[in-house]
Amino acid sequence: MAGWPPARQGAHCAPMDCPLSSAPAQQEIPAGAIRRPWPQGGFTSAPYWVYSDPAVYAREQQAIFRGKSWHYLGLEAEVPDAGCYKNTYIGEANVLLTRAEDGSLHAMLNRCAHRGNMICREAFGQAEKLHCVYHSWNYNLKGDLTFVAFRNGLRGEGGLPKDFELADHGLQKLRVASIAGVVFATFRADTPPLEEWLGDVADGIRRVCRKPLKVLGYDTQRIHANWKAYHENPRDSYHANILHTFYGTFGLSRQSQESGMVLDASGRHVYFYTKAGTEKASADYKETASALRSHNEGLMLEDPSILKWRDEFGDGISVQILSTYPSFVLHQIANSLATRQLLPKGPGRCDLVWTYFGFADDDAETERMRLVQMNLAGSAGMVSVEDAAVCEMIRRAVGDGAEGESYIRMGGSTLESGGNSKLSERAIRNFWHAYREDMEI
Ligand code: FES
Ligand SMILES: [Fe+2]
How many domains is the chain built from? Predict the structure, then answer.
């Protein structure tokens, strides 16, 4: 890959994006330690304390981020050759994704087995071995310990115990698997195989990532809100047409268009799709739309090229937003393609890492179209800028969560109600159901 490793440019190099910056590790909170009562409504409401309580946050690290789920690590295209690594996170755990000499992918904690020092400091790199600077324990790209400085001591002094075995002191390894070039890892041996875990939602990943990918760029957005407020957002298609002026006014995604939702059998993963240009006029839609601030016929674009898109997959879908539990989003908004990785950084903060991509065989015009459309989606995108804003507004409004709860009954009050309609909070009810199961609260 030309220009390897990929530079993170300008604001993308801000400390928030640095592997060295993370909230301090939290102490483990056992199941049963969170004694606050969940509201009567069960998964049809979330108590506001769940967004701010430090004990809840600490327990999530164990029960969710080290729990029985697959977590997005990156794209295979980010570690294209032997020796390439990516430095990232699952929850607050600092994790390396590597490609070994034989081409296989591996994931491991970025934490030396000696005294816990960070092994790799760069966001990306390429190396023949993983080297800890503190006392020179070296590991291969699969995370096996291969060398310890002064292992046998010097002139009969020092050295490690005689029964020390390199094989017993490798980096802590995670299971790793990929689908269509998108790489996930899990801490648990009993997490089902990746494609089984994704269920029907795997099709939404394959639909977008259908050819070898090419990374176009990154940015990282620090959101001053709890990670779950953001996780709810792409599972909430109800807001899209209402909050986002660009969707409603310029017709990229409207409730009146042909659309639907695919939820996997476990209710943990979901994608929504909409087909622009398939308006079905109805009196009740017109009545509602006329009252929405996001439908503003007076707004015009001086340069409408941002809205020029091509139906490159040939199925008419203009927007597909896919979300896997608990922290991964894949979007296709017109021809803008990106992953979003949600990294919690304390109860009241999270980082959203956007990775924009196209295909390795894109021609120059297609690549330029994707770059122009980054202005639609992304941390400052015309469509998505409002999402982080509402998460922060929620945080300010709910404060310390001492009282109050949300109301999540659009489309009904059960895990099934709402069917496959986009005008529903069914996927959010299913999220809270899964969350409570994992957290045992
Ligand atoms: S902490 Fe890594 S070699 Fe000592
Ligand atoms: Fe949104």
Answer: 2
